[in-house]
Specification:
The structure is a single chain. It contains 13 helices and 18 strands. The termini are far apart. The chain is an alpha/beta fold. Bound molecules: flavin-adenine dinucleotide. Flavin-adenine dinucleotide binds next to α1, β3, β12, β16 and α8.
């Protein structure tokens, strides 16, 4: 049996970020993943500005290597399509200036991002990175946990569980239950040759009337590829008996804004489905000697479905909490509360604003009315750009009086 200070379960973005941050402070760890890398990961492959921000904070050299090796596409904004086919182009940063502003966002296949992060960990951790190694169960030990894996037992003083949305091993700590209203179901596939992609690689979100509060997406990728998908809240999928792949095909065949662009496009492989555990502040994500990070902690943005940035942030914060635990020699419940508090401080506000936006999308007629009024309004793109950089502005957009004022002031 090998012994370590921290056992990290999962080598996705959450787990690898935790490992790299622990390594900076020389805290011993073992990181295990059931997969071998590179491997496919079902995802939209769109990364928000949070991703370069937190990787740079970990190490500017790692961010440079990521850009060099993975050659992600820089994406500069979002094209929103509202019910009624109203189109709004919203740059992430208004009047973007590459000298002054950080990279606004990326698109890159998750297969590449995840393999890159694993390679970075492998370079510093060597055999402490155990791939093709499945965690089967965890039990409480005398001074921490005993983790039973397909490659033998590991004894660890702490656990960072970053095992994603679909892990199924038995653990002696509570894991959040996936409630249908707090879960989205999504499918994605790849196409080659989709026409009319935005020259500045804007990602496209189609909030169509029949799929609200979900959306259909077209995300441009390097090498002439595009990631195409659809995601809808699970309770809505179940209630309306929606077949996501069929609805996605129907949009590609018949939506007047979409179908002409797919006429000569080729689908590469079958659509693949997965669930997204949407952010839920009620969950307990830490306790004596353990922390949950990323999807295991249900940290996906309820409006946009963004989870990679939040997984990286939570992995980073979990590692810093673990460093505090070893420095103070405190692993008790009360001390671990700080982890949840810091996650709420960093991600809580945007999660709750996104939850409220998502609730608003339940009313298609209202959304259509707002879109009609907003069409051609010169204040809207700037206002929506500020949503990405200023949380207080995003909050203002939930205030009906503020929205009415902007809509009337054409
Ligand atoms: C269809 C779809 C589209 C999405 N689109 C986007 C997007 O465009 N942008 C975005 O930011 N987010 C998107 N997301 C969300 C994003 O994919 C997740 O939030 C992100 O992967 C979370 O990272 P993580 O490290 O927490 O978990 P994961 O990336 O899931 O990593 C968990 C790891 O744990 C391992 N593991 C699980 N069980 C065990 C076990 N028993 N033993 C050992 N290892 C185990 C797995 O093999 C995996 O490698 C999308 C999700 C879906 C489903």
């Amino acid at each position: 049996m090998q012994s370590t200070s921290v056992c990290i379960i999962g080598a996705g973005p959450g787990g690898t970020m935790a490992a790299l941050r622990l390594a900076k402070d020389n805290i011993p760890f073992v990181i295990v993943d059931k997969d071998e890398f590179p491997r496919e990961k079902i995802c939209g492959d769109a990364l928000s500005g949070k991703v370069p921000h937190i990787i740079r904070r970990l190490s500017p050299e790692i961010l440079e290597r990521f850009e060099e090796k993975c050659k992600p596409m820089h994406s500069f904004g979002i094209r929103f399509i509202a019910p009624g086919n109203y189109v709004f182009d919203v740059p992430f940063i208004e009047n973007y200036n590459a000298e002054k502003h950080p990279v606004p966002g990326y698109t890159v296949k998750r297969k590449l991002l995840d393999a890159f992060m694993v390679e970075e960990v492998s370079n510093i951790a060597g055999e402490k990175l155990m791939t093709a190694c499945t965690v089967m169960s965890i039990e409480k030990g005398e001074d921490g946990f005993i983790i039973d894996t397909s490659s033998g037992q590991i004894q660890a003083k702490m656990i960072i569980d970053a095992s994603g949305a679909a892990s199924s091993f038995k653990a002696p700590y509570p894991k959040p239950e996936p409630e249908p209203k707090k879960t989205a179901l999504a499918v994605r596939t790849y196409y080659k040759g989709v026409k009319g992609l935005h020259p500045e690689n804007f990602i496209e979100l189609y909030f169509l009337e029949n799929i609200l509060p979900g959306y259909f997406w077209i995300f441009p990728l390097p090498d002439g590829l595009a990631n195409i998908g659809i995601g809808i809240r699970k309770d809505v999928v179940l209630k309306k008996k929606i077949n996501l792949s069929a609805v996605m095909d129907e949009i590609i065949r018949n939506n007047p804004l979409v179908s002409p662009r797919f006429r000569d496009a080729e689908r590469l492989g079958k659509p693949a489905a997965c669930r997204l555990p949407l952010g839920n502040p009620r969950f307990r994500i830490a306790g004596e000697r353990y922390m949950l990070a990323g999807d295991a902690a249900h940290l996906v943005d309820p409006l946009t479905g963004e989870g990679v940035g939040n997984a990286l942030y939570s992995g980073f914060i979990a590692a810093e909490q673990a460093i505090d635990c070893f420095n103070e020699n405190r692993f008790d419940d009360a001390f671990m509360l700080a982890y949840g508090q810091r996650i709420r401080r960093v991600l809580g506000k945007e999660m709750s604003i996104s939850t409220n936006f998502q609730k608003m999308l339940k009313y298609p007629r209202m959304v259509k009315w707002i879109a009609k009024r907003a069409d051609g309004n010169k204040h809207i793109p700037g206002l929506m750009s500020s949503m990405f950089t200023d949380l207080d502005h995003r909050k203002k957009l939930l205030n009906p009086i503020f929205i009415l004022r902007v809509l009337m002031n054409r």
